[in-house]
Amino acid sequence: MMSSIKFPILFSVVMFGAYSQYEAGKTADKILLNKTPLERQSKAANPDDRVFMMRALELSQLAIKDNNGDPFGSVLVKDGKIIGEGWNRTSLLKDPSAHAEIEAIRDACKKLNNADLSGSVIYASAQPCPMCLSLIYLTGIKRVYYCIPHYKIEKFNKDLSVDFIYEELTKPQTERTIPELQILPDYADKYLESYVTQ
Ligand SMILES: [Zn+2]
Asked: Is 101 a catalytic residue?
């Protein structure tokens, strides 16, 4: 049982702790007010977000371990739980699509036995490339957290530049570098029927 002497001491310690937390919160709020919206959003990430990002960064090191591929890692989370993990395995699998985010998405879909990842959040050690970002949209992932921005990666490896592809995607179809041309237009409606009737 708690003695009557210990109680005021304990109470003071608890109150001091709560006050310190309150003060720290106020200071953090003040710091955030001076940040850009993007920085603010990043700083406002909760402790769990930082833990998941640390895991993605940890996984990025697996990518370089057995010459799997470039050092990128990713974690997919739903309702506070990790549902998929991945790291770049392009070199190992000889698969250009085996980026960390795609691998994490494949892992989650396999485990959940479902291709719909609506409501989940992805943590990527580096800002996703256009391929990964497209799949993020297609699978219903609601938010992306990244640690290393594109421009920092490009400084080390120009081959990993994604600005060109992002720019291409903003152009009208007829102005892109890779021609995308329709052929056999007469068959379009016939084969479209299978979409309608399935
Ligand atoms: Zn990618």
From this structure: yes
What pairing do the DSSP bridges indicate for beta strands 81-87 and 143-148?
A: unpaired
Specify the 3-state DSSP secondary structure of 121.
strand
Inter-CA distances, 128 with 34, 67, 90, 123, 175, Å:
27, 21, 15, 10, 24
Cα 51 to Cα 36: distance, rounded to the nearest angstrom: 23
Phi and psi at 82, nearest 5°, equal: -70, 125
Burial track 99-137 (b if 16+ CB lie within 10 A, e otherwise)? bbbbbbbbbbbeeeeeeebeebbbbbbbbbbeebbebbe
| Orientation of helix 100-112 relative to helix 130-138, angle to 10° | 20
| The pLDDT of residue 22 | 45
Provide the whole-model pTM.
Answer: 0.75
The answer to whether residue 128 scores a pLDDT higher than 70 is yes
Query: How large is the average pLDDT for residues 133-155?
Result: 93
> What integer is the mean pLDDT of 172-194?
92
Span from the CA of 48 to the centroid of ligand 1 (angstroms) = 24
Selected catalytic residue, list 39, 58, 85, 101: 101
Which is nearest to 72 in space by CA: 140, 117, 128?
Answer: 128
- State in Å: Cα 135 to ligand 1 middle: 9
Q: How far is the CA of 40 from the centre of ligand 1 (A)?
A: 25
